[in-house]
Amino acid sequence: MLLSLKDDHKQHISLLISQPTNVLQDFCRLALDYLRKGPTPKLYQTAAQKLDVQPEIIRNAVEGLVNLLVESCRHQLSDIDFHDTVLTLGFSEEHQETLESFYRGKKQEIYDVLSQLTLDQPHYHDLEWRFEVASRALQHQVTPLITMNLALETKTGLASDSTTTKNIVLQTDPTNLVHITQVLEEALQESRSQHSRRIQRSFK
């Protein structure tokens, strides 16, 4: 099968078509580094100066190459299919050999990254809570507590309705609950950041 990339990904990769083989090899290393650790703006700035383009263009090219490699692994392309896909994108035979060699050598590592990203983690299903206080005899020592029963669901098979539910009982005081809420809100804001969205788009 031939891999079909979105138009914007094709446009991002187009920068690499006109570059020498050694530059393409450098971009392959940048793509692998992106998969391992995320974007590295300093390296993109250096590459942009060498190629006399904007750093954003370098970053887009790296992300386009990441998408090509990830989608090829996701669809389990054979070396022949990967070869044909690369040629349809406009790369020369020399470039194709460079990309195919990189794909063949790093395929397992990319699979490992994908398996970590697609690992099905438990997700929220329901939450019950109640306030608890000590007896009247100990009112001078009372610290209100909140007891929560958190229900998490995990898929157990390919079917969307095949799940198991796990109940976790938690207990905390109001002050700590406020702190937990703040930390979760910060994490939610980070997930909506431009950096996080770029990474998420690379794996779609």
UniProtKB/TrEMBL annotation:
InterPro entries: COMM (IPR017920), Commd2 (IPR037354). It holds the Pfam family COMM_HN. Residues 123-195 form the COMM domain. The gene is COMMD2. This is COMM domain-containing protein 2.
